[in-house]
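Protocol step 4 of 6: record predicted structures for both targets in the notebook before any analysis. Target 1:
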Amino acid sequence: MKEILDLVNQRKEEFAKAPFFEFMQDKNIDPRKKFVWVPYAAPFLMGFKDVFSYAIFEKHLTEPIHEHINRYATEESRHVLWYLQDLQKLGFNSSLKYADVLGFLWSSEIERIRHLSYDLITCANQKDIVLKLAVIDAVEATAYVGFSTFAEVTNELQKLTKHNYNYFGKAHSRAETEQKHIHGFDEAESYLRGLKITQEQRIAAIELVECVFDIFNEFLDICLKLAKKYEQSQPLFKSSETELLARA
């Protein structure tokens, strides 16, 4: 299993070098313009509630580690509430007709983002505990990189907007850092490093880790394209704050 965890760390280092993160860390770009992609990412980010509540949550408790997984999944599934709060603070909670909202969420522009959420659920929905833990470790690795970066950007954004951001700010970054310790995953990871797995499990775990990182990398590529496309204007979501963003 050590080989699988080492692969996660390798892909994590590569993930941190994604062009999207270079964009987010660019000091020459107004921090308000770095989050124009956020409403378009809703199907994927909100989809984590289903990823954790449906695919990762273990309904049949047969091993002690299942309890750790369920506590972790329950906590993670609640973070979507922070995303909704930050949508409001970022100025994306405009009044839209329900039909317009549905049309947007199922539009061709964000179709692939929506499908990536389904792909992640498929990856995470594993009965083999070894495979499920491999997926969790990969997802946590992407979360650590992503939310550490977002926290740095929102630190600058807060100076301009006077808002505290929970999903994209320090609260989420801190939660991701502390998560494994709180739910006993420090011990679980040590256990996994010494675990002997079958060749079949090894091949499947490698494929799943690669799958998770491929999904997140594609998600970031789409978000970067959206950020650049709507850097100067936000046609669907209009509010005083987003109009200010467009003029900045």
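Target 2:
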Amino acid sequence: MSSPALVLVHGSFHREEMWGALIGELPGIDVRTIQLPSSAPVPVDELGDMYKDAEAVRRLVLDIGGPVVVCAHSYGGVPVSEGLAEIGAVEHLVYLNSFVLDVGESMLGNRGGSYPPHWGVHEDEQYIEMLGAEKVFYNDLPEREAKAAAAGLGPQSLVSMRQPLTRAAWHTTPSTYVIGERDAGLPAPMREKFGARLGNVRRMDTSHSPFYSRPAETAALLREVLTGRPTR
């Protein structure tokens, strides 16, 4: 039996090209990526919302036409949870330093309704820019690499952070939570809360973005899921 396809869903501010180093560690795997509308390279007034992200993820998975494993990073877990509920082809969800929200919860609501200091919020134009990404997202990368990664970020739709889930796929789909122990983007209590929701937790000695700093280690974990071996 062939291995399931692997769908990689990026987080806020990012572009799908961020997965390049990780994909290079996954030869022989059918890897699919997606550009979420909420952070697409378009004028800020054309950015999509969370529900458009969820629909895009859902369409991609259904178009594959076979079994899939989905790895969602950071905000990517929100549209994955919303869009992939009750889809039998999804064999496993991997939430990589990701938000595991429940029905009725939103990204901003999960933060108590307050904007974190690394969000540069433009209320009039309804978008957010990322501030200090080198220290928040990439704090285990050499300075030059962290700056290069940060330079690839773009604006994020503000409304996508306010929209609540209407469904939560992790309630019915086997799921794993991956905690980066040096993640400066998600506070430790939040990470532990999300891990407890899923019950199945893996830990890595990494920042928020192990696909940059530890691509081989991240790939090994995903291969375990793809081949059906139990995650430790």
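Step 5 preliminary note on target 2. The domain at 5-226 is CATH 3.40.50.1820 (Rossmann fold). DSSP finds nine helices and nine strands in the chain.
Proceed to step 6 after PI sign-off.
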